[in-house]
Each structure stands twice: as C-alpha cells, then as structure tokens.
Design a protein that fits this description.
The protein is α/β, with parallel strands linked by helices. It contains 9 helices and 10 strands. It folds into 2 domains: 1-79 and 159-246, Rossmann fold, CATH 3.40.50; 89-157, no CATH class. The N and C termini lie far apart (45 Å).
C-alpha cells in the first residue's frame, strides 16, 4: 500500500483549474520529484496534501486513512510534514526556538519540554545547525534558513516530508550539500516528495518523477523516462521534441 495516494484531486481558483483531476501515489521510502513550469500547480498540490487548501473534488489518503477533510495540525501529527517555497521562519526567535515549535506542534497531545528539546537538538544536529542554535534565525544565510525549515519539519517526527524548492537560490556548492541532506533524510527512513527546478538535483536524488502542466499530470516515470518524454521536452524544457530530427 502506498504511504500517500491521491485520486482525482482537483482545485479551482475562480474559473482556473490549478490542479485538475490528478492521480498520484508515493511509495514508502522513495524520493519522488514533482516538476513542471511555473504555475503548473506543484505548490497547490502540496497545499492540498497538507490541508493548507481543500480540494474541490477528489480524495487524498495517508497511510491508508482519508485526510482530505482534516486540519493541518492533525495531518502533521499523523506523520506528514512540509517546508515552504518561500522560507517561513520566525526571524526574531533563536534557531533552536524555531525548531522547538515544530517539536511541540508535531507532538500527540501534551509533549514534555525535555522530549521537545531533545527532538529539536537532534534535528539541528542532523541538518548541521547545532552550533547556530542560539543565534536569531534572521542571521542565517538563505541556505541555512532552508536547513532550519527542514530541521523544524523533522522535529515533528514525520514519516513523509514535502520539500518545496529547497534548493532555489542556492549556489552549486550549497545545492550539492542540500542534495546530500535529502539522501540522508531518505536513509533515515523518511519518504520524501520534492518540488524542485534544479534539474541536477531532481535527476540525481529522485527515483521517480511526476510532471505537472497547467494543473494536470502529463508524465510520470524514472528520471531517464521523463527526461526523454517528448511531451515533457516540449512543455517543460521549452523545446520542440523533434528538434533533433530537423
């Protein structure tokens, strides 16, 4: 049974279908890439999965349980966490306190302060920010602010993590480090779905890729299958699929 599954997921904004009748499934332990041009519906799909938005129609199940009508905190406490396309940190709070919020938010019922502190410290150590725990989050570089968001999500103890453009705005060295972190998260036993425009990362880290265009799924398969798909080449890479034939 897939850990996450969607059937006919649809969401409109006015008369525009941001996500249109999308079926998807995520297998336990995989890293699934979600790609497509800007405005393809990728982040909207993440918002639907995490309950930031409600679908107009369709269903989403996590670990075999319907989550379509649940609240974000309920989904988080089931084991599904996310980061955001635009970094959402509490800049005036310390790095550690940002992650503590995740630990408390993801806890079932009451969580002891000592347990939350342990989860937060472990998450910061995992992403390489332990030495920055006491500084204000606003003082971190962009790359480390993105790592902080990952740490906060990991402190909720997820089974599945949604990463929304974790590598946007990073230099090549930072991208390589971020790719390594994704692989470490997978090695930890956490399933990952990642939206990303850095194709090097998508092709290297993901075992499978799903492509959206105008809210609809147009392709799905291994990196090799997707990168040679004629439709994907035309609509995503902005090239004619038959260019090599002319």
């Amino acid at each position: 049974m897939p850990i996450l599954e969607g059937r006919g997921v649809t969401r409109y904004f006015g008369g525009l279908a941001a996500v249109s009748d999308v079926d998807f499934q995520v297998e336990q332990g995989e890293v699934l890439g979600l790609i497509g041009p800007n405005g393809a519906g990728k982040t909207t799909l993440f918002n639907l999965i995490s309950a930031a938005l409600s679908p107009r129609s369709g269903s989403i199940t996590f670990r075999g349980k319907e989550i379509t009508d649940l609240k974000p905190y309920q989904i988080c406490r089931m084991g599904l966490a996310r980061t955001f396309q635009t970094v959402k940190i509490f800049g005036n709070m310390s790095v550690l306190d940002n992650v503590l919020l995740g630990a408390f938010f993801g806890g079932e019922g009451r969580i002891a302060s000592a347990d939350a502190a342990e989860a937060a410290a472990s998450a910061l150590e995992f992403v390489g920010l332990a030495e920055a725990a006491a500084i204000p989050a606003r003082d971190l570089t962009l790359a480390n602010q993105k790592r902080l968001e990952v740490a906060r999500a990991l402190a909720t103890r997820p089974e599945l993590l949604l990463l929304d453009e974790m590598m946007e705005g990073l230099n090549p060295t930072e991208v390589n480090r971020a790719m390594g972190l994704v692989k470490m998260i997978q090695d930890k036993g956490i399933t990952v779905v990642m939206i990303e425009h850095v194709m090097k990362a998508i092709m290297s880290v993901c075992g499978r890729i799903m492509v959206l265009h105008h809210g609809a799924k147009i392709a799905e398969g291994t990196p090799q299958e997707v990168s040679t798909n004629r439709t994907v080449i035309e609509v995503y890479f902005g090239e004619r699929a038959d260019a090599s034939d002319s």
